[in-house]
Design goal:
single chain, 11 helices, alpha+beta, two-stranded antiparallel ribbon
Length: 400
């Protein structure tokens, strides 16, 4: 009885603090949601020329302008709800016709267009009046559409270990067209194979990385917040085996002899440390008006495999619209709610903040430029829309 008395006494003391905390959390949620809903966003379509002679390095330089980490002053953040800006690069197949889109805050339109023209003067940028997602009426009464949605995360726990990038494919050396190995070709060929009654949307959302990222500490067996550079340097120490302590000199020498694969991984990590990091969310939607085909889902997930290798990182697909075990959803009601919820997340470009509030992965500009760039003419996919002739130069009246 005395224990209950003391519990009630302490509960009364801590209740005001708990209520104050909950009020603060809901207040931040409200002002940030209002800020996101009020911020105008636009959809740009980028049409590429027949000949793209630049390597993905040009796209890497373009991504640097998207490092917009400024959240505003205290009044902006805690009164107006200001947050870091995010951008969405989208690769879309509409019945086999491939399109490149950017969904961005309208505030950055002139900056994005100017930087894009500086790297790719021949491209054509147009403002899209009708969002392509409006075509799929999933969730509305009488809709023939069904959807399946995946999110892609890194397979390895340590995000400082990069994926296989365009530099590993030697595209940074600008070889002749006949010798280029275009890493996006498998994905483009898959998107071109989509049937007229199918839609496949791939969305890569990026936001300037926070200064601190989580890392698992093997020594203390816990996750701690560290800087991006520290996380990478810890991995360099591990890969170079400098933390090996052996009294026997022969054993110590053996443990410090790296294999070719380890040296390649070490080189990739060190190179990645010099790049700008981003918080990234990757998701894909497969929609069909004539029933979902399992082969299309397999093809979609397989189109990410060329970005991974055994000694580096790789992408892993996580289904977002079904449950692993039948007893979790015996009547299929929960799966339908999941489908609708994640479909709306895609259409609203919601990832980093409520209502989605997803945990992002960390990718550098080099990794981003590998998975989303304008492919060279090596990618001869027939349904990849290209401009018939080169543009001479960007518009003279482009505002800066």
């Amino acid at each position: 009885m005395q224990v209950v008395f003391w519990a009630l006494t302490y509960f009364v003391y801590f209740l005001p603090f708990a209520l104050a905390y909950l009020t603060w959390v809901f207040y931040l949620y409200y002002i940030r949601e209002k800020y996101i809903n009020d911020e105008p966003r636009i959809l740009l379509e980028i049409k590429i020329p027949k000949e793209v002679t630049k390597s993905p390095k040009a796209m890497e330089l373009f991504y640097e302008v998207m490092e917009q980490g400024y959240e505003g002053e205290l009044i902006d953040r805690y009164i107006k709800g200001s947050i870091r800006g995010w951008f969405s690069m989208e690769l879309v197949s509409i019945g086999g016709q491939i399109h490149f889109y950017f969904n961005i805050p309208k505030f950055f339109q002139n900056v994005i267009e100017a930087r894009l023209y500086s790297q790719y003067p021949e491209v054509e940028i147009s403002l899209v009046e009708q969002d392509y997602t409006k075509e799929v009426t999933f969730g509305q009464p009488g809709s023939p559409w069904d959807v399946k949605i995946w999110e892609y995360v890194l397979d390895e726990k340590d995000e400082a270990l990069p994926i296989k990038t365009y530099i590993d494919y030697e595209m940074d050396r600008d070889p002749k067209e006949e010798f280029k190995i275009e890493p996006m070709t498998p994905m483009l060929e898959f998107l071109a194979s989509v049937k007229p009654f199918e839609r496949v949307w791939i969305q890569i959302m990026i936001m300037a990385a926070k200064k601190r990222v989580p890392m698992y500490n093997d020594k203390d067996k816990k996750t701690e917040m560290v800087t991006w550079n520290k996380k990478g340097k810890e991995l360099v120490e591990k890969l170079s085996r400098r933390d090996t302590k052996e009294s026997d000199l022969a054993k110590a020498w053996t443990k410090n002899v790296s294999t070719d694969a380890e040296r390649d991984a070490l080189k990739s990590v060190q190179r990645n440390l010099n790049k700008i990091p981003f918080d990234v969310g990757i998701r894909a939607v497969y929609a069909s008006s004539q029933g979902l085909k399992p082969a299309t889902g397999v093809g979609l997930n397989s189109s990410f495999k060329q970005y991974g290798s055994n000694n580096l990182n790789r992408f892993k697909a996580k289904i977002q619209t079904s449950y692993d075990n039948p007893w979790q959803d015996p009547w299929g009601w929960r799966a339908k709610r999941l489908q609708l919820r994640h479909f709306q997340y895609y259409c609203n470009r919601s990832y980093f903040y409520p209502p989605a509030s997803k945990k992002p992965i960390g990718l550098s500009t080099e990794e981003l430029a590998t998975i989303y760039h304008f492919p060279s003419s090596t990618a001869s996919t027939p349904t990849l829309g290209r401009i018939p002739s080169k543009r001479g130069e960007p518009p003279e009246n482009l505002p800066i």
